[in-house]
Amino acid sequence: MARKMLIDGELSKPNEEEAHYDFDLFVIGAGSGGVRAARFSANMGAKVAICELPFHPISSEVIGGVGGTCVIRGCVPKKILVYGASFGSEIQDAKNYGWEVNDKVDFNWKKLLQKKTDEIVRLNGIYKRLLSNAGVKLFEGEGKLVGPNEVEVTQLDGTKLSYSAKHILIATGGRAQRPGIPGEELGITSDEALSLEELPKRAVVLGGGYIAVEFASIWRGMGASVDLFFRRELPLRGFDDEMRAVAARNLEARGIDLHPRTNLTELIKTEDGIKVITDHGEELIADVVLFATGRVPNSKRLNLEAVGVELDPKGAVKVDEYSRTNIPSIWAVGDVTNRVNLTPVALMEGTCFAKTVFGGEPSKPDYRDIPCAVFCIPPLSVVGLSEEQAVEQANGDLLVFTSSFNPMKNTVSGRQEKSVMKLVVDAETDKVLGASMCGPDSPEIMQGIAIALKCGATKAQFDSTVGIHPSAAEEFVTMRSVTRRVSASGKPKTTL
Ligand SMILES: Cc1cc2nc3c(=O)[nH]c(=O)nc-3n(C[C@H](O)[C@H](O)[C@H](O)COP(=O)(O)OP(=O)(O)OC[C@H]3O[C@@H](n4cnc5c(N)ncnc54)[C@H](O)[C@@H]3O)c2cc1C
């Protein structure tokens, strides 16, 4: 296939590269972004190599696996555990639907863990096949840069391989960080949490982000007692405040003990478990302490400074809007650039990279209206602006529509848990700026709403859309009355 190389919008002469470089593209890191960029570039005719650390569910600086965080230690195994945990409450809900459920329901953690591992091993194989089917050469080992066009791969046995490439793509993702408190070695990160030998009876989670609340929900759903500690008043900073409050209320109602404005200061090993000490002087004993205290870009061991690649103060690789670093032959996508750290975003960046460099179509990733979900139980999902962001960015007034309702399923099951929806609308243009929902199936519903927002839908268009009945989703097209009008300065003008 003819090879097209686009540099700053100009096609270079194909024969030049073949003579000089082993590969057109060398990708370091075979996670979401790296695999996408490698496959698409190869499909566009480039000669591509990729390197990835050897496979294991728990990562380290020398352990990883094709598929990356999402497949092996993130989205996929987590969602499997969320499904597993959700059956507990589903079984309770089934009783009023006529299912005779014996009081004692057993849960076999080891069985679920084995099924989860089988699935990630299967996906790891699929990702390897995707690469080989696209003609991408895979090297197993740790990659680092030696120069602007040279990569060195250290294989498991210590052998070093060196290759030149016209372009190098850094796609090494991120890694969980620990909070730096005495006894932190007694705690675990999300990597280990997805592979625990035993289901904890008493779990402590430190962190208020999505990973923290998801694991709190998983363990609680499986029957553990869970204490969730976080620094703010509410968990899930960055999401709409009203929806954060709904999510917090649901977590509490499902039996999770929330400890807002509280940090952990020390962990001590005792005969009974891990003694957890808080900055309020509280003490409790746990079987497992999870640190979900943020992630850092995986950039330390890549020799980037020596090659002159600029990093930001957090260690993220600095890139322009095409994902190119300050060194023209070196590019970076995904979590290592710390833009929006989500799998679909890494995929988008990988796709745009391939189109820009090998497809003859310079493409910038578009970060507007990225939907996302928190898979706590029940889940929260959002797209567009939160009310707080809209107030900050708006020129004029906003109309806020909310709906809090008892999902139909709960009317028979008796579960006391409301679903809550929200739309934030520009009062002048009628454009829907943001949507959120906390309740069952919200991620499935929000994906469709995200298309509407991407198309610039107005509230009138939402209202003229026919609902699907009976469903929770139809509520999004029947929110007729304004809950409140918010002035651009953020002060409620009227409560309609
Ligand atoms: C617990 C958890 C849950 C998550 N849940 C979600 C979710 O529900 N939805 C969502 O969208 N996102 C989720 N994410 C985030 C998502 O996993 C990441 O945003 C995504 O994987 C980023 O892709 P990436 O390609 O940048 O990096 P990664 O997928 O992390 O891939 C980087 C790869 O580079 C390899 N590597 C690192 N250094 C080297 C080296 N020197 N040489 C060779 N290889 C190297 C690593 O082993 C890794 O395989 C979750 C993350 C975690 C931790």
Decide which structural class fits the backbone.
alpha/beta
Compute the separation of the termini in Å.
Answer: 63 Å
CATH topology of the largest domain: FAD/NAD(P)-binding domain
Low-confidence stretches: 1-17
Question: Looking at this structure, what is the CATH superfamily of the largest domain?
Answer: FAD/NAD(P)-binding domain
How many distinct folded domains? 3
Bound molecules: flavin-adenine dinucleotide
Radius of gyration, taken over Cα atoms and rounded to an integer in Å: 24 Å
What spatial form do the alpha-carbon principal axes imply?
Answer: globular
Keywords: Disulfide bond, FAD, Flavoprotein, NAD, NADP, Nucleotide-binding, Oxidoreductase, Redox-active center
Cofactor: FAD
Organism: Fragaria ananassa (Strawberry)
EC number: 1.8.1.7
Notes on the structure:
The chain has 496 residues and is an alpha/beta fold. The protein folds into three domains: 5-72 and 113-176 and 296-358, FAD/NAD(P)-binding domain; 184-293, FAD/NAD(P)-binding domain (3-Layer(bba) Sandwich), CATH 3.50.50.60; 378-481, Enolase-like, domain 1 (2-Layer Sandwich). The chain has 14 helices and 25 strands. Strands 3, 4, 5, 6, 7, 8 and 18 form a seven-stranded mixed sheet that branches. The longest helix is centred in the first third of the chain and has 25 residues, at 109-133. The model is unreliable at 1-17 (pLDDT under 50). The structure holds flavin-adenine dinucleotide. Flavin-adenine dinucleotide (FAD) binds at residues 28-34, 51-53, 59, 64-65, 68-70, 73-75, 78, 142-143, 171-173, 190, 211, 298, 301-302, 334-336, 341-344, 346, 375. It is an enzyme of class 1 (oxidoreductase).
